Please model this.
Amino acid sequence: MKFLMVGAGLSGAVIGRRMAEAGHDVTVIDSRDHVAGNCHTERDPETGVMVHVYGPHIFHTDDEAVWNYVNAFTTFMPYKNRVKSTTQGQVFSLPVNLHTINQFFGKTMRPDEARAFIEEQADTSITDPQTFEEQALRFVGPDLYEAFFKGYTEKQWGCSPTELPASILKRLPVRFNYDDNYFFHRFQGMPEHGYTPMVEAILDHPGITVSLSTPFDPGMKAEQDHIVWSGPLDGYFDYDIGRLGYRTLDFERFTASGDWQGCAVMNYGDRDVPFTRITEHKHFSPWESHEGSVLYREFSRACGPDDIPYYPIRMVDEKALLADYVARAEGEDGVTFVGRLGTYRYLDMDVTIREAMDTAQAFLTALERQSALPVFAKPPL
Ligand SMILES: Cc1cc2nc3c(=O)[nH]c(=O)nc-3n(C[C@H](O)[C@H](O)[C@H](O)COP(=O)(O)OP(=O)(O)OC[C@H]3O[C@@H](n4cnc5c(N)ncnc54)[C@H](O)[C@@H]3O)c2cc1C
Model:
């Protein structure tokens, strides 16, 4: 069959590779001038620093098959994500852990003491939390909430935590030990030469043709047997019943010499600081050494029609519109919607790869049974 992958990110690359390996003819297009989608990295010509162009990406997973998959295409270097936060005139360790709690309250508590202390802070009058704010107050009380959750969340989502659902904060967001590794996953790392060469290697197969700077044109359908769409779901329909809401990011790039902030990610929790965080990209490749440094100040705002969609806003209104688009998509023939934009979900890289592997498998099974290929391998709702 002739497959057209719209999007050369992880979704398009992984599905395209599998279909090419199975003997199909695969074309991958992307409107951007590079592969790897939002994971794209490039070396800054001036400083030599590997820059995560669309924001920092740290690979972490418990899925051994996914870990083996990415390691077959590149070498991963050890990397642990350790984040700091500048808040109320001090620098703290994140995620909120025993060090943060002791520093914040000026104490020297052991784990059990800290647990009991935080339980005292928690607002137990909230029995059935409905909003993010109520959930946070019930878990950690007003002081930690104000310092580490409220301002950051307002900046990130552009609304009050009283308007966000409690489900965002599913678990107690503090640790009663000194573990400051952001992720719990068994496998964590960073590709030695960045993500883009890894995706190039996935796409490097004789059955795959890649065309960059090539936006999808509906006329392309006629030349293909099946389209795999990893662009925005509403974009496929030309946004004709409205746009699904996203948050976008503005990166204010600046350079420095030496070590500007001493860590890769510094969050800013105070509401009066307009940006959410500063990332210093050289620290994402700690095995390299560069005199110069490249940093991004990160601002979050509502996504306009010409902006890059980053985080889907899955509030009540968006879900209603999403349901309409899903119903229409299900009436389409010859197209499968995949990935973070095609299914309007926030997906980490490992989940994206897992879903792409499963989608390719679903295609192969359907072809074997001579049945139709699925419109969604993972339902967006
Ligand atoms: C700020 C940010 C930070 C993140 N950090 C992490 C992290 O630390 N760890 C982690 O595991 N995950 C992280 N992620 C998630 C990660 O970016 C995604 O899992 C991954 O990019 C999803 O790949 P994809 O192929 O589905 O989508 P994308 O990477 O978005 O690829 C889709 C591609 O389709 C192309 N396209 C769209 N429309 C068209 C069209 N009409 N014609 C042609 N091409 C088109 C786009 O140009 C794009 O290149 C982060 C995401 C964001 C937004």
Summary: The mean pLDDT is 96.
